[in-house]
Amino acid sequence: MISALAIGLVLVTSLVIGIYGVRAARSTSDFLVASRRVSPTWNAMAIAGEYLSAASVLGLAGLVLKNGLGTMWYAVGFAAGYVAVVALVAGPMRRSGAFTVPDFAEYRLGAPRLRKLCGCVVLVIMLLYLVPQFKGAGVVMALVSGTPYWVGVLLAGLVVSGSIAAGGMRSATYVQAFHYVVKLAFLAIPAIYLVVHSSPRTRTEALTPEWGTHFPETTPVEFTVGTRFSLDEPVTVTAPGGEEVRLSAGEHTAAEGTEYVFPEGATIPRPEGLPDLGGERWSMPLLDVGGYPLFETWSALLAITLGCMGLPHVIMRFHTSPTARTARRVAVGVIALLGLFYLFPAVYGLLGRVLTPHLVLLQGTDTVAVVLPEQAVPGSVGTVLAALVAAGAFGAFLSTSSGLLLALAGGLSHDLFQGSVPRLRLAVVVGAGVAVLLALPAQMIDINVLVVWAFTVAASTFCPLLVLGIWWRRLTLPGAASGLVVGTVTATGAVGWSILLPTPDGWVSVLLAQPAAWTIPLAFTTMTVVSRLTRPPDWAEHAVLRLHSP
Amino acid sequence: MSPRREKLTSPQTRIALARGNRPVQHLLPIPGPVDTEAARRLFHAQRRAAARTVALLSVLLFGMSGAFAAFPVLGEIRPGGVPLSWLLLMVAVYPLLFVLALWHVRSAERIEERAEREHPKPGHGERER
Predict the structure, then answer these.
(1) Where does the chain cross the membrane (chain B) (predicted)?
(2) DSSP notation for A187-240
(3) Residue A286 shares a structural domain with residue A379
(4) Are A337 and A248 found together in one domain?
């Protein structure tokens, strides 16, 4: 109830700021003039507010709990992406006068058809990014109100398209900045409180994973999906009827709907395919899902760091700075704000391993940030803290998905069709509808897996297009087009295969799940080789030099 | 909804829409008369700076993860009870990223200032459309 109230409060405040607070800054019809009155600090906060999605607020904590400390590399990648942005695209992109990547492609290579191709890639990236946002919203709503997952997803779709239709969320800098503060405060305050108020033993246990992970108290576990797990030592659990069931060491399968009550102190069973909670693989700070930790870490880092610059809603934001110089400085500010935020998700993961390890069995680790406070601090304080996190997560979902949906709708109505305002509305509804439909069967897929998929596609398509377009005079239209096609097909296909279809074991499955290490070089090579074979137009050099002259 | 709302499009989009289906000839006008040689020098200087920053970023990210793999002892040293590798990954890396970005901005701006000193444009401030 309190959580629902907190979420409602965030929603109402956003609408109020959107309607009243920004009127001064929006009275002039030209967005650029308005944004010149916004200080770089506000602008940086707005960018960070839009960028921190459900993947950061919910997904990271859950991944740390489930797969171990190495998953914090995702956060490092999210922040490092802005270093690449500062170094490679922020200034020149601002000077090109392009709002979006299709715009930039048109500027640099001068071909309407390439614009359409880029528009299609925008759609793919935005949909891949929207689905996990809706998943996060569905999960939070299901936790808060007890409704089934699909109701939460559907409701989230309605709320977002509704709030865009009401006009309360339109790229309003202050709303986005407000959401950054909400996310930071609502994640940081509970985290600090939990660390300060947990017992010294809990803290030490959280930092010494080699002690093993045990049920902190007698815990009923209801398997909502069929789960295979293995036990290192036998344990006696209680079934709902009261009879005792002895599970021997080794493999077990719990059918959907099974209920077991695990006794206090029992070792946590290990679900199939996951590392031992607190084991060596878990505490080693490298990404390790398929058994090749260094390769997986590097591939994920490449995808996220380079993917950041290719995200359509990130690029769009540079135009809100009056000059190229300010655009770069704003991006540096974003790094500071992201770094501050990313200090906190790991706290939930580390404490979650000690206090709520059963979430791993339920495949519900994405909920750890909301579940943990109530578990750790019983009573009203815990409820309030959980409500804060839930509201922060909802704010994350709201701001990111509105930004994404607008970018998607803009891409649909501007780049693919001749746009008009009713069409833009229609595009918002269609985009939200498709994302909701795709999110419904995605409940069991980790938020971060989906988000990294979007980053991988961005890094294999728009990253080479922008980097070569800005820094290489000889990029040509056929080169860019063929690179885009190769990048989209390989990156989308590889991750899609690894999620949806059975994969062979060993190297192949790792190459499919983390394809950035080969799809990015492949896209770069295709663009350079094909460009070498064709001739750039005479004005190409001018178009490049112009991007760099102050 | 505010009655004064206007459709916002980037200059590139406006050009594209105005052009309709005619083949592309002109993009945003490239401001002339430009000293091409000076612009080339500026471009190359900026490219060097960008390459240097990207190289340092790779060293930081790949180096740190590589060190975790090569020296497991980093997980056994525990200042204040927290494994050193965890501290590096959870806390120390962000200030380093920030400093790297700040340093790049400084050098990029310095390159631009030097170019402007050598080739001042009449009536030119830091102004763009």
Answers:
(1) 49-74, 86-105
(2) HHHHHHHHHHHS-HHHHHHHH-GGG--B-SS-EEEE-SS-EEEEESS-EEEE-T
(3) yes
(4) no
Inter-chain CB proximity A283 and B61 less than 8 Å: no
Tell me the β-bridge partners of A271. Answer: A229
Helix/strand/coil for A262: strand
Do A332 and A296 share a structural domain?
A: yes
- Which of B42, B62, B66 is opposite residue A549, by nearest beta carbon? B42
A371, part of any domain: yes
Q: pLDDT band for position A208 (50/70/90)? A: confident
100-129 in chain B: CB under 8 A from chain A: 100-102, 104-105, 108-109, 112, 115-116, 126-129
- Which residues, numbered 460 to 479 in chain A, qualify as contacts with chain B under a Cβ-Cβ cut-off of 8 Å? 471
Query: Which tens digits make up the pLDDT trace of A474-532?
Result: 999 999 999 999 999 999 999 888 888 877 777 888 888 889 999 999 999 999 999 99
Q: Report phi then psi at A342, rounded to 5.
A: -75, 0
Interface of B with A in 6-65 (CB under 8 A): 6-13, 15-17, 21, 24, 27-28, 30-31, 34, 36, 39-40, 42-43, 46-47, 49-50, 53-54, 57, 60-62, 65
By C-alpha distance, which of A282, A277, A268 is closest to A69? Answer: A282
The reported pTM is 0.87
CA distance A18 to A399: 12
The pLDDT score that the predictor gives to residue B22 is: 47
Q: A68: nearest CA in chain B?
A: B86
Q: Per the CB < 8 Å rule, is B97 touching A83? A: yes
Indicate if A360 and A289 belong to the same structural domain.
Answer: yes
Domain that holds residue A354: 40-203+279-548
Domain count, chain A: 2
Secondary structure tally for chain A: helices H, strands E: 26, 7
In B, which residues are within 8 Å of A539 by CB distance? 27, 30
